[in-house]
Automatic annotation (TrEMBL):
The keyword Signal applies. It comes from Cupriavidus neocaledonicus. Keywords: Plasmid, Signal. The keyword Signal applies. It comes from the Bacteria. Residues 1-26 form the signal peptide. This is Uncharacterized protein.
Length: 299
C-alpha cells in the first residue's frame, strides 16, 4: 500500500476512535482502590451510576457491590460509551467483575490489607471510518475488536489521622487483544502481554464533604507483532493517571460526586483493544475525562 494512503488511513481512524480522548474505564478507576470497597459494616451493598463526557464522547456506567461478610466483597460494573466524529460512530462496551478478601484487619487502628481479584473486558462490533478525501478507500473497518484482562492487587488502607484515609496498592496481570482488520482480507491481529501497576490515594473529609486525590501508574511487557511496526505504531510501555474527586453526602445512604481524571498516554492499559496496528500510533497522547454521579449504599 502506498505510504501516503497509509498515513491518511492512520489519521482518519485515529481521529475517529481516539480524538474523544477518554472513551472507557475498564480498570480506569484503580486510582480509587480501597481495602474497604463497600463500607465498614459486616454486610451491605452499594450502587453507583455515573455519566461521563468529554468532547465527542458521551457515556454512562453502573457499578454494583455487595459485602458478603466482614472479609468478603463482590463488585460488578458495566460501561456503555458512544463515540461520534463527523459521520463516524462507535459504541464500546466494558464489563468488570471482582472479589476482595480481607487478609489482615485491625479495626481499632483503622487499618486493613485486602487481596482483590478482578476480570474485565472491552468489546464492540466494529470500529469504522467514513470516506477519506483524495483516495478510493471509503469504508475501513476493524471488526469485532475485544480484549480480556485478569488482574490481582494487594490494597492497604489506613486512617493515620481523624477524617483522613490513605491507600496504597500494587498489582499485576495479563491481557489478550483480538481484532480483524479489513485493510487486508482476512488479516487478524492477536497479542497478549503482562502488566504491573501501583498507586495510591488520599481522602480528606470534613462534615458532609470529602475530597479524594489518586494516582495510578502502569508498565506493560509486550512484544508487538512486526505488522504493527509496518503501520508506524509506537511502543508505549508506560501510562500514568491522576484523579481528583469531590463528593457530598446528602444523607447516610446517598452521595453525589464529580470526578476529573487525566492520563499521560491516552487509554493505554485501560482499553487494550485500541492497541492495534492502526490506532496504536495515537496512544501516546494525553487526555482528560469528567464524570458526575450518584452513590447509593445501604447497611
Amino acid at each position: 500500500m502506498d505510504a501516503r494512503i497509509q498515513r491518511r488511513l492512520r489519521a482518519c481512524i485515529g481521529a475517529m476512535m481516539l480524538a474523544p480522548a477518554g472513551v472507557a474505564f475498564g480498570a480506569m478507576e484503580d486510582a480509587l482502590l480501597s481495602a474497604e470497597p463497600v463500607g465498614a459494616a459486616a454486610r451491605g451493598y452499594y450502587a453507583e451510576p455515573a455519566y461521563d463526557l468529554v468532547s465527542h464522547y458521551q457515556g454512562s456506567q453502573l457499578r454494583l457491590g455487595y459485602k458478603l461478610s466482614p472479609d468478603w466483597s463482590l463488585e460488578a460494573g458495566y460501561w456503555r460509551r458512544q463515540v461520534n466524529q463527523g459521520d463516524d460512530a462507535a459504541g464500546i462496551n466494558s464489563l468488570l467483575a471482582s472479589t476482595s478478601f480481607g487478609l489482615i484487619a485491625m479495626p481499632d487502628a483503622g487499618r486493613k490489607l485486602t487481596l482483590r481479584l478482578s476480570a474485565w473486558a472491552n468489546y464492540t462490533g466494529g470500529l469504522k471510518s467514513g470516506a477519506m478525501p483524495g483516495n478510493k478507500l471509503t469504508d475501513y473497518r476493524i471488526a469485532h475488536p475485544n480484549d480480556t484482562q485478569l488482574q490481582a492487587d494487594l490494597v492497604y488502607t489506613g486512617r493515620p489521622w481523624p477524617g483522613q484515609v490513605l491507600t496504597g496498592f500494587i498489582g499485576g496481570g495479563f491481557h489478550l487483544n483480538a481484532a480483524d482488520a479489513g485493510i487486508d482480507a482476512g488479516s487478524r491481529f492477536n497479542d497478549g502481554s503482562a502488566f504491573v501497576g501501583a498507586g495510591g490515594s488520599w481522602r480528606w473529609g470534613l462534615g458532609a464533604w470529602s475530597l479524594t486525590a489518586g494516582y495510578h501508574v502502569q508498565y506493560f511487557f509486550r512484544e508487538p507483532d512486526s505488522r504493527y511496526m509496518a503501520y508506524g505504531s509506537a511502543r508505549t510501555p508506560l501510562n500514568q493517571t491522576v484523579l481528583l474527586q469531590a463528593s457530598y453526602a446528602v444523607n447516610r445512604h446517598v452521595d453525589v460526586f464529580v470526578r476529573g481524571q487525566g492520563a499521560h498516554n491516552s487509554l493505554m492499559g485501560y482499553v487494550p483493544m485500541l492497541y492495534n496496528p492502526i490506532t496504536a500510533t495515537r496512544l501516546d497522547r494525553t487526555y482528560g475525562l469528567f464524570s458526575i454521579g450518584l452513590r447509593i449504599s445501604g447497611f
